[in-house]
Amino acid sequence: MKYRSILLFGAPGSGKGTQGAILGKRPSLVHLACGDVFRSLDRESELGKLFTKYTIGGGLVPDELTVELWRHTVRKMIAAGRFDLAKQTLLLDGIPRTEHQSVLMQDDIDVIAIVHLFINDVSQLMARLQARAAKENRVDDTNIEVIRYRLDVYDEQTRPVLARYPMSKIARVNATQPPEQVTADILRALRDMKVII
Predict the structure, then answer these.
(1) d(Cα 147, Cα 169) in Å, to the nearest integer?
(2) What pLDDT digit, counting tens, does each position of 66-85 carry?
(3) What is the CATH number of the domain that holds 175?
(4) Residue 177: inside a domain, yes or no?
(5) 197 in a domain, yes or no?
(6) Residue 128 belongs to what domain range?
(7) For residues 73 and 89, what is the distance between their CA atoms, to the nearest angstrom?
(8) Which of 4, 51, 89, 129 is least buried, going by the fewest C-beta atoms within 10 A?
């Protein structure tokens, strides 16, 4: 059975985590941020060390490893009663991040909508990431060169994922607005697409 899913999509710093946390409070949605799953790993474990190696340099964790960890996490959520397949929709943040991941996941998820949070001003994205680094002690957001590299990786590897889905499923939302306005725009866009959450 495929998991009914909405993808939160956007460059690093576009507000996916913020919107995921807000929307994830709705009883019909379960927010799952792939980055949070990786950051919760024991840094001394083999997987934790591997994750640290990739994120410090701004790169992406290998696709097969990412998808397998995601599958394992969803199964644990179902077993713990934190995700009800019959009643809830997964709100995925940070996955799929590459075209290959979207291929690997095509038998796992039924993508009913994609919320594309966009910020056209790169300097604003960089400022947001630096502010997040200071606030959340995020090692992947501290170095300006790593931030630039992460944004390049997004443009080269993640943005093309959008082309795998029909335009009719993609809602573009201006993420430069205050968070509450972004949330309102997301909910309005989903209603317009007849997505009920």
Answers:
(1) 29
(2) 999 999 899 999 999 999 99
(3) 3.40.50.300
(4) yes
(5) no
(6) 3-192
(7) 15
(8) 4
Both ends of the chain: CA-CA distance in Å? 20
Domain count, the chain: 1
Q: Which residue has the tokens 């889905």?
A: 165
- The residue-averaged pLDDT of 23-35 equals 95
Bridge partners, 109 (sequence order): 3
Structure tokens at 66: 């990412």
3-state secondary structure the chain: CCEEEEEEEECCCCCHHHHHHHHCCCCCEEEEEHHHHHHCCCCCCHHHHHHHHHHHCCCCCCHHHHHHHHHHHHHHHHHCCCCCCCCCEEEEECCCCCHHHHHHCCCCEEEEEEEEEECCCHHHHHHHHHHHHHHHCCHHHCCHHHHHHHHHHHHHHHHHHHHHCCHHHEEEEECCCCHHHHHHHHHHHHHHCCCCC
CB atoms within 10 A of CB 112: 17
pLDDT at 141 over 70: no
Q: Residue 75: what residue type?
A: R
